[in-house]
Design a protein that fits this description.
Elements lengths: L3 E6 L11 E7 L2 E6 L4 E7 L7 E9 H4 L12 E7 L2 E6 L4 E2 L8 H8 L2 E2 L7 E9 L2 E4 L13 E2 L7 H4 L20 E7 L8 E7 L5 E12 L2 E13 L4 E8 L2 E7 L9 E5 L10 E2 L5 E5 L8 E8 L2 E7 L6 E2 L2 E7 L9
Parallel strand pairs: 1-5, 16-20
Antiparallel strand pairs: 1-25, 2-3, 3-4, 4-5, 6-7, 7-10, 8-9, 10-11, 10-12, 13-14, 14-15, 15-16, 17-18, 18-19, 19-21, 22-23, 23-25, 24-25
Organism: Actinomycetospora rhizophila
Protein name: DUF3616 domain-containing protein
Amino acid sequence: MTTLPVRLALGAYAPTAGVDLSGVAVTADTMFLAPDEGSSLLRLRRAPGGGSLDWEAPEPIALTDAVALKGGPEDEVDAEGLDVVDGCLWVAGSHSAKRKRVRPGTPPEEIGPRLAEVAPEKGRRVLARLPLREGPDGPRTVRAGEEVAGLGEAARLPSGRRGLWGALADDEHLAPFLGVPGKDNGFDVEGIAVRPAHHGGGVVLGLRGPVLRGWAVLLEVAVHADGPKLVLDRLDKCFVDLEGLGVRDLARDGDDLLVLAGPTMVLDGPARILRLRGAAAGPLPPAITAGEVEEVTEVAVGRGCDRPEGLAVLPEGLLVLHDTPAPHRLDGEDLVGDLLPRPGAAPTV
């Protein structure tokens, strides 16, 4: 398999400055990235003459400026999934609880108490639709309350009982996992794919966890905008046999849905890109068996590093970005991702 390096000139936002990336979406010459910390996104532009291999001019997008959020600019949103469709940027937070990290060198008698500390992290319960305004240098988000012709203003789903959390509070499969941290096979949104209007709309959320007896979960959410709020109309579940793996990202490829699959826990692999035929063109079935899942490619992982985390479809191939990138991916203030072949793509109908 031929892999090409994709260079992201991130400047002060490079992983060498402590910034990891969790999600990616690309539209024409503009790339949106979700850093792993804080409440801002990044916007990059395709470098002149660089094709899909070079991206530059990073700019932060403060989500608190674009849509009403709980907390302040420094509070973590944990944006994990991005998608651009019909002129809007969609953002999904992890919605997951967080367990205290045990850092190297922690005294043994402190490890147990640290592991007992779990925070609900309500600021992570974000599902937002941000209209984009086209300009001379590509699409940009607008400030909260500002309308874009034909698209309206930015809107987000409530984080409480009228949002995703409330809709799942009594769910027979997922409710027991809502308070369990994502890295412990708890509830954790890691990918988003939004169907275009000509396919009926609808938001598909991919869960890293929980994985239930080897079956991963996709949530299909129908929403509509009412001013600055998204209103939840319907929520359905689709169980997908990913052979024990969870969803680390989602991407539309024509009428198909691509799944970047990986472990629910903090493990080094395996990682795969999988194809669900027709899943971006219509409602998901109640379940998708292993025989209906097509493997596109296995994705290499490192030991304690290089965990595939972001997936985007480019004209030239599939872009994969990594959490905890290995040293060879860090070149000063540049981050290097992988451009993989795109076999099996079906045309959009």
